[in-house]
Amino acid sequence: MGAEEVIPPHPCRKNPASYDRNLYKARHAIENLFPKLKQHSSLAIRYDMSMRNYSAMVAIACLLTWLRF
How far apart (Å, rounded) are the C-alpha atoms in residues 38 and 61? Predict the structure, then answer.
């Protein structure tokens, strides 16, 4: 299907498939960002009805998450 392997194989495999470590690190960082964004109740419940306001809240939550590091 043309998909690229990103997740590392199980260590017990006889013929482990190769994967890109840098792409896996980026994927892992993005997957960890979603639970941190859901800590903001306005994002999890989606109080904002317009797409413009919601995307602004997502940008603010990303900025606050980034500043905590």
Answer: 9
pLDDT tens over the chain, length 69 residues: 787 778 888 889 888 888 888 988 988 888 888 888 888 777 777 777 788 888 888 888 888 888 886
Q: How far is the CA of 63 from the CAs of 23, 36, 48, 55, 57, in angstroms?
A: 23, 12, 18, 12, 10
User: Both tokens of residue 1?
Assistant: 């299907």
Q: What is the DSSP string of 1-69?
A: --PPP-SPPPTT-SSPPP--HHHHHHHHHHHHHHHHHTTSHHHHHT---SHHHHHHHHHHHHHHHHHH-
CA 54 – CA 50 distance, rounded (Å): 6
